Inverse folding.
């Protein structure tokens, strides 16, 4: 019998303290998974404690996914706290805006280090355990910016283009180990990080969300839960023959 069969599985969610990652952590926990929130944001510790108080199994480990030494320490801690990882969700990301001429080298490096190198380092750290088990799942969180052009978010868009390539590359390389690798591309989600970014530009986020949502084909902005449900699908046996795919969840934003 197939279904949303993630109960008892160890699921790592990077950037799981808030926003889309927070919703992903909640969804997996609701379906009985053992969730490990991996984040630099210590709010994840309280979130994991609240989840545990509600009878779910959740842990928090502080880790900067752009740092190989942090990830090495994470791998040891996860093994001790939650055992071998069956599902890795590479969600942690930053999305500051700049076009080519305003993109400084350090700005570019920071975005690539977190959004792209982080996914590579995390995969490298946790794939050996999946190979040993002969099964595993990686879901990378990309963005529709990967293929939209997006000149005002140049480095960010390139980092998410890299996530598409990483997804296809790992999917092909790891399929014979029973490991599936897919990507979910959200369109526009009213996450904490996005709300903060919009507010910093002097725009009222609620007004912007209402205006943008009304213009989308499906009539509203996406929520973290909209994204989390697609991640859950890609991590369950409902998608057992799906690998190397990019699933766009954008309410029709990218339709032409
Ligand atoms: N919000 C959107 O509209 C949108 C659209 C498309 C794609 N995405 C992608 O979704 C993902 C989540 O975004 P969000 O909107 O929920 O953002 P968010 O800012 O609300 O949450 C991101 C989380 O990642 C964590 N994080 C940042 N750098 C980290 C690092 N070096 N190591 C570990 N954790 C780190 C943050 O602390 C935070 O908890 C990102 O990859 C983003 O690019 C978001």
């Amino acid at each position: 019998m197939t279904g949303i069969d993630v109960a008892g599985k160890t699921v790592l969610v990077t950037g799981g303290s808030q926003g889309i990652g927070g919703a992903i952590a909640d969804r997996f926990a609701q379906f009985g998974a053992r969730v490990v929130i991996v984040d630099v944001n210590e709010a994840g510790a309280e979130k994991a404690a609240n989840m545990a108080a509600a009878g779910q199994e959740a842990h928090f480990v502080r880790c900067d996914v752009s740092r190989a030494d942090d990830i090495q320490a994470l791998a040891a801690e996860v093994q001790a706290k939650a055992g071998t990882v069956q599902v890795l969700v590479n969600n942690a990301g930053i999305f500051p805006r700049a076009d080519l001429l305003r993109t400084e080298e350090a700005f570019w490096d920071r975005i690539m280090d977190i959004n792209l190198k982080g996914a590579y380092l995390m995969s490298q750290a946790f794939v050996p355990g999946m190979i040993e088990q002969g099964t595993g799942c990686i879901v990378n969180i990309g963005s529709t910016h990967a293929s939209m052009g997006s000149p005002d978010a140049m480095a960010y868009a390139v980092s998410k283009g890299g996530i598409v390539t990483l997804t296809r590359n790992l999917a092909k390389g790891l399929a014979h180990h029973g490991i599936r690798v897919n990507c979910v591309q959200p369109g526009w989600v009213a996450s904490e990080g996005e709300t903060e970014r919009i507010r910093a530009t002097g725009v009222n986020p609620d007004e912007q969300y209402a205006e943008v949502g009304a213009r989308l084909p499906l009539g509203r902005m996406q929520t973290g839960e909209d994204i989390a449900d697609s991640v859950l699908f890609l991590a369950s046996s409902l998608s057992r023959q799906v690998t190397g795919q990019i699933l766009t969840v954008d309410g029709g934003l990218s339709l032409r």
Q: What stands out?
A: The radius of gyration is 17 Å.
